[in-house]
Amino acid sequence: MTSGRTVVRSAPGKLFVAGEYAVVEPGTPAILVAVDREITVTVSGSEGADVVISSDLGPRAVRWQWREGVLHVQDEEDEEGARGALAHVVSAVETVAGLLAERGLPVPTLDIGVSSRLHEDGRKFGLGSSGAVTVATVDAVSAFCGVELSLDARFRLALIANARIDPKGSGGDLAASTWGGWIAYQGPDRAFVLDLVRREGVEEALRAPWPGFAVRRLPPPNGLSLEVGWTGNPASTTSLVSGLHRRTWRGTDSHRAFVETSTDLVRAAIAALEAGDGQALLHQVRRARQELARLDEEVGLGIFTTELTALCEAAEGVGGAAKPSGAGGGDCGIALLDTGAAHDISHVRQRWAAAGVLPLLVRPTSEGIEE
């Protein structure tokens, strides 16, 4: 069935517009946007191994073999670091294989190649590379195996794969990479999802309601340009979110107030987008920055770096709004600026460059994975 076939699928990266940190609580909303840089996964038949995975971020192809539904590195010299570097690809393959097994279908040999435009010289931009590679791998492997899936089912498989690695992740990056464009997103209860898979299987998890989960597309902002600045310092979202989980702050009155305020400003920002009210959207993005700053001051996560603070101040200096995108601590910041004020946009980019922030030439994209 798959002999001689090659399947190529891509998934875009993402940026958080509002709702970071609070979105890890099931049912709490956030706004994200997909961007026109992507990860591409190519799948064909393999020779000499059950699964071969190669990536432009790694020095060599790694061979894997199946043992009771789990992939293991075939060559000992590749063992060190291979599972960590390729964890999201491996988990995506294992999750699709689990679905195939439940349907009584064999898993063909797979040669998987990964190519990323979400990195530069091996350093990630903070555009959701882990989520994009998971979505693209699920899409490519399932298509190669002849399994037709809706966008919702592809997202669900990707979330199961990611939750098996890090159940604290919200899944917002996966949703942006799946649906594309501007989206409103609420994450499901990942513990519930993983328990459902354990009890009922992957197939049932694709059909059953997921408490808290919701996603819908939003119109792009009216009269505003999304500008993106990269600090040049990669940050670990997993580490920052895990740091928040380890602190006694979670479950306190302050934590509940943060989630409530984030929910309020995100809902107001959604309403502004749907009404085409650019000024109202700017106000809510400024509120989002203030709430992240309050969180950072209270908990001491290191969300705001010198570069991210300079990025925000430059944009607000010309009447725009700006904030870290995602977990902060490095990676990217975003700014919303008047589309018609070319001089202001140029001025902000110049100030960013002087502060060590690289303006990234990325734009929102309405393209997710293929329908």
TrEMBL record:
- Domain annotation GHMP kinase C-terminal: ranges: 270-346
Annotated GHMP kinase N-terminal domain residues: 96-181
| Alphabetized Pfam families for the sequence | GHMP_kinases_C (PF08544), GHMP_kinases_N (PF00288)
InterPro entries reported for this sequence: GHMP_kinase_C_dom, GHMP_kinase_C_sf, GHMP_kinase_N_dom, Phosphomevalonate_kinase, Pmev_kinase_bact, Ribosomal_Su5_D2-typ_SF, Ribsml_uS5_D2-typ_fold_subgr
Q: In which pathway does it act?
A: Isoprenoid biosynthesis; isopentenyl diphosphate biosynthesis via mevalonate pathway; isopentenyl diphosphate from (R)-mevalonate: step 2/3
Q: Which GO terms describe its molecular function?
A: ATP binding; phosphomevalonate kinase activity
Provide this UniProt record's keywords sorted from A to Z: ATP-binding, Kinase, Nucleotide-binding, Transferase
Q: State the EC number(s).
A: 2.7.4.2
Keyword ATP-binding listed? The answer is yes
Instruction: Check the record and name the PANTHER family matching this protein.
Output: PHOSPHOMEVALONATE KINASE, PTHR31814
NCBIfam families, per database record: Pmev_kin_Gr_pos
Q: What is this protein called?
A: phosphomevalonate kinase
Q: Which organism does this sequence originate in?
A: Streptomyces xanthophaeus
